[in-house]
Amino acid sequence: MAKKIAEPTQTPRERAILVGVDLIGDPGLLPLEDSLAELALLADTAEVEVLGEVTQRLDKPNPDTFIGSGKVEEIKMLVEETQADLVIFDTELSPRHQRELEERFGEQVRVIDRTALILDIFARHASTREGILQVELAYYEYRLPRLTRVWTHLARQTGGGGGRTGSTGGVGLRGPGETQLEVDRREIRRRIARLKEELEKVRAHRQRYREQRRRSNIPIVALVGYTNAGKSTLLNSLARAEVYVADQLFATLDPTTRRVELPAGHTVLFTDTVGFIQKLPTQLIAAFRATLEEITEADLLVHVLDVTHPNAWEQWKAVQQTLLDIGCENIPTITALNKVDRISDTEAIRKALGQFTSSVAISAKTGEGLPNLLREVENILFENFAPVTVYIPYREGQLIAQFHEFGKVEESQPFGEYIKIKGSLPGRLLNAYRPYLKRPTPAKSEV
């Protein structure tokens, strides 16, 4: 009698309880309910099933458990009732809070925060060597102060085995009086240093590549926006590209660059970058420095905004804050109000356009408004001139000559070891002169 072959089974999804805290005097960018809804989307992207939500309003965090002791007991009962594996907090927990909560909830329940959840999603979606290195660095820097267990947990995370951690090798022997925890911490620090060295090589390679693009005089347009706003769909529509698109958060992590021809025949490079989100972990901003430089080095930003989202304005502010944090406040920006194909009220669209100084209504999916967007890109990069005053070192003769050739010079005079030029430049050249906007301090001999 033939045996029946068992059907392959899917790995069961982890099950989680979400916890949101409303701190009085420290309101988040989104209302608590909306922030928890976003956390639920993050959990779904990480293939975690949400079983319930718990919220609390606090004057200040509890020094031991962040939330009140009564709320801890309430969550513990809910975890036991639902047999949840995870408790996910919508705010970043300190190592102490995390340890205390895990002790209260029991050994079988893991406590993580929004940062750890986003790191998990990034680890799932990183596909290039650069992306994997960046995520691994962020993971280790987040994990180091929270290290309480033996090294084997991290060995599994990085694909090692038998006491090894991927490419780092074994943890080695302990010295006299040295605890296993100290050995583990030293090994993580060593791994962090190696990852930073490798990423610095990536950064240098990207910088050389960008310099080659600059020499070709082709302007760079960076697509920025909240995660899932439609940046990749827009790049696909503009460049007939095949960038991976999915209706989920952080579907793409690695930058993709494509050539696009503008209406008057000019060629520009459009770059799709990693999406932003409120409470974006600082570890990710630091680890993704090489990738984010694609934004800081751009000649123009197109901020793609999902105008149909109920928290569109808050998402816009979250992106603007991140751009400010990475030093992009002086780059010209167009706001592309995306997904207008879902809006039948033309007056609502007109009103939304009026909230931004340079905006275009588009649908990346249907192509509506894309010719207008490309015309606006062309106007800013090649036709509109922006007033600037720059202080250029005499050794940068090429930049000085370029200003005189393509810009409009109103005033040019010596300023110590620099030449001060006041005038205006086309948008495509502004980025090259940004390092020279600040007035230098004259040498003592010049005072």
What attributes does this structure have?
15 helices, nucleotide-binding, disordered N terminus, four-stranded parallel β-sheet, Rossmann fold, six-stranded mixed β-sheet, alpha/beta, GTP-binding, globular
Structure description:
- With 447 residues, the protein is of the alpha/beta class.
- The chain folds into 4 domains: 14-119, 3-Layer(aba) Sandwich (Rossmann fold); 128-204, no CATH class; 218-383, P-loop containing nucleotide triphosphate hydrolases (Rossmann fold), CATH 3.40.50; 385-446, Alpha-Beta Plaits, CATH 3.30.70.
- The chain has 15 helices and 13 strands.
- The strands form 3 sheets. It has a 6-stranded mixed beta sheet, with helices on both faces. It has a 4-stranded parallel beta sheet with strand order 2-1-3-4, sandwiched between helices.
- The longest helix has 36 residues, at 180-215.
- The chain is globular and about 70 Å long.
- The model is unreliable at 1-8 and 149-174 (pLDDT under 50).
Portion of residues in beta strands equals: 15-25%
CATH superfamily of the largest domain: P-loop containing nucleotide triphosphate hydrolases
Q: Give the C-alpha Rg.
A: 26 Å
Low-confidence stretches: 1-8, 149-174
Task: Give the biggest sheet.
Answer: 6 strands, mixed
Helical residue percent?
40-55%
What is the count of structural domains?
4
In sequence order, what are the helices and strands, one letter per element?
A: EHEHEHEHHHHEHEEHHEHEHEHEHEEH
Overall form: globular
CATH architecture of the largest domain: 3-Layer(aba) Sandwich
Annotation, overall tally of beta strands: 13
Ends apart, CA distance between termini: 100 Å
Q: Which CATH C-level class of the largest domain is it?
A: Alpha Beta
* Global mean pLDDT: 83
Classification by helices and strands? alpha/beta
Strand order of the largest sheet: 6-7-5-8-9-10
CATH topology of the largest domain: Rossmann fold
What is the overall number of helices? 15
Coiled coil: 178-215
Biased composition (Gly residues): 158-175
Binding site for GTP: 225-232, 250-254, 272-275, 338-341, 363-365
Subcellular location: Cytoplasm
